[in-house]
Specification:
The complex is a heterodimer of chains A (282) and B (108). In chain A, 28% of the residues lie in helices and 11% in strands. Chain A has 282 residues and is of the alpha/beta class. In chain A, the strands form two sheets. In chain A, strands 1-5-4-2-3 form a five-stranded parallel beta sheet. A four-stranded parallel beta sheet of chain A has the order 7-6-8-9, with helices on one face. The two termini of chain A are 33 Å apart. Chain B has a single domain, classed as Immunoglobulin-like. In chain B, a hairpin with a 2-residue loop joins strand 5 and strand 6. The N and C termini of chain B lie far apart (37 Å). The chains are: A alpha/beta (282), B mainly beta (108). At the A-B interface, helix 5 of A face strand 2, strand 3, strand 4 and strand 5 of B.
């Protein structure tokens, strides 16, 4: 994968809003954002109600994903362009789902809603409906998804990349600072994980930094690209952003997103936890 | 709507009253308005909270009345606002409880 096959610019998007076979999909952390104005023709996926199983803590399975895309009018040969607010966190999370279920042509809109709004490009509240399609999802690709036992086993052996803010990594905060801090689980990070906040990969307008800048950032942080990598955050959406950078932009192989992330790991009984600004020992 | 961590990273309503359960003895709330060069509140501005090493910590979008709010920790923070009315910066030293401020934005 590379920037050319994974990312589209706002200029490209604006020119292709009506191109047949290109479907724009908004996925936001604030699930009401779409209703206040969206890209013309774009449909919405709700990361909580559409993409998560509503009973157990897991995301939708292959059949649920196929049924969802069929109902929303997305076909297997469509090019899906994902975008959203909060620097594309949840759009990247959805991108990872599309990759996991084997969608062939999927892209992220560089800069997401933020760059689009700051550029004063067109937004509309028009209701969009697409005729139903028949979508067939592939078996989930578990080479890009990590589960908890793999994370424990990766301590000291694989690249563990903690993409939360430095204060969350060190255990001084339990959540991003736009949310209240009352939480029960333990603070800290997985021992030996390096701290590379997701935000270092993005410019302040939400667009991604250049490939060379990105390579320099992860090299300086001590990421060994000959080894497998697992990225994690708090609930798996910011780490999707970093998974996207490492695998889809920089072309690293064997990169997994640990979607259980700190809300799972920090509540496990008996696993090692490191506090402070250093990676810590095995 | 109250801000809730059980909702994951869902963006809380920036204009909502502080949740009654919020413990201001423990929380460090940084809140305020983004105003343009004419002093008018700026709705839909992107406000970024950067720590004392200039590392990104959080970002919110201002309410229709131009309000933003962060739950941080005591210390020095930089607020950076981006909007169609221009950008602006402000450094704030926050302590426990509510810290109110105004971030001015202006076109270059």
């Amino acid at each position: 994968m590379s920037r050319d096959t994974a990312l589209v610019s706002a200029d490209w998007a604006e020119k292709n809003l009506e191109t047949p076979g290109v479907v724009f999909v908004e996925v936001d952390e604030d699930t009401s954002a779409y209703d206040t104005g969206h890209l013309p023709g774009a449909i919405k996926l709700d990361w909580k109600t559409d993409l998560q199983d509503q009973v157990r803590r897991d995301f939708v399975n292959k059949d649920q994903f196929a049924a969802l895309l069929s109902e929303r009018g997305i076909a297997n040969d469509d090019t899906v362009v994902l975008y959203g607010g909060n620097n594309n966190w949840f759009a990247a999370y959805a991108y990872w789902y599309f990759a996991l279920y084997g969608h062939r042509e999927v892209r992220l809109l560089d800069g997401g809603r933020k760059r689009w709004e700051l550029d004063a490009r067109p937004l509309t509240t028009e209701v969009v409906s697409r005729p139903a399609a028949r979508y067939v999802a592939q078996q989930p690709d578990h080479t890009i998804r990590a589960f908890r036992d793999e994370v424990v086993a990766a301590i000291g052996t694989k690249n563990l990349v903690d993409v939360r803010s430095p204060d969350e990594y060190a255990g001084r905060l339990l959540a991003p600072a736009h949310l209240p801090q009352e939480q029960a689980q333990r603070a800290g990070h997985v021992p030996t994980a390096i701290s590379v906040p997701w935000s270092r990969a993005a410019n302040e307008d939400g667009t991604f930094k250049s490939d060379q800048e990105l390579r320099d950032i992860y090299a300086a942080a001590g990421l060994d690209d000959s080894r497998e990598s697992i990225a994690y955050c708090r609930i798996g959406e910011r780490s999707s952003h970093t998974w996207f950078v490492l695998q889809e932009l920089l072309g690293h192989r064997n990169v997994k997103n640990y979607d259980g992330s700190w809300t799972e790991y920090g509540s496990l009984v008996g696993v090692p936890v490191a506090l402070g600004d250093e990676p810590g020992k095995e | 709507m109250t801000a809730s961590t059980t909702a994951g990273c869902a963006a809380p309503d920036q204009a909502a009253p502080l949740p009654a359960s919020l413990d201001l003895e423990k929380e460090t709330v940084i809140t305020g308005l983004v105003r343009d060069a004419a002093g008018e509140p700026v709705a839909g501005a992107y406000v970024r909270l950067l720590d004392s090493t200039d590392e990104f910590t959080a970002e919110v979008v201002t309410s229709p009345a131009g309000q933003f709010r962060f739950f941080a920790a005591p210390g020095t923070w930089r607020l950076r606002a981006l909007s169609r009315h221009g950008n602006g910066d402000l450094v704030i030293t926050a302590s426990r409880g509510i810290n109110e401020t105004t971030v001015p934005v202006a076109l270059d």
